[in-house]
Amino acid sequence: MAISFNDFQKKQESVSVRLDKNKADVSKEELKLPDLTKKDDTTRSHLTWLFIAGLFGLILLSGVYVIWHNNSLIELSIRAKEKDLNLPLEEFKLLSFESIYSQIFNTFGTSLGFIIGYYFKEKTSR
Predict the structure, then answer these.
(1) pLDDT tens digits for 55-71?
(2) Against a cut of 0.90, is the pTM above it?
(3) Which of the residues 7, 48, 59, 61 could staple to 119 if both were Cys, CB 3.0 to 4.6 A apart?
């Protein structure tokens, strides 16, 4: 089955028109890429700062909690002594900030490393 030269030219022109249309569509999408990259960087920055602020906020709140907890236990033991109640002092466990701090960083330390690494990840596309 042979194809005539005129039919071949028509097919080539239709393919050329579709190719030009596709090139125009690709060009439009390529123009959107810098905006998407900037949005991705902005989102990454917000997530990183939110996580770090939350982590340090949690550390500060845990420090306040340790002080409050230990103060409450001391007040409880003083009131118990004033009322002549025999509470075993071994059951009063004071918290140390180091142990709470250690638990927080054991829990969130890996995530912190991932988040900071993700923040500084270089986005290059060619």
Answers:
(1) 999 999 999 999 999 99
(2) no
(3) 48
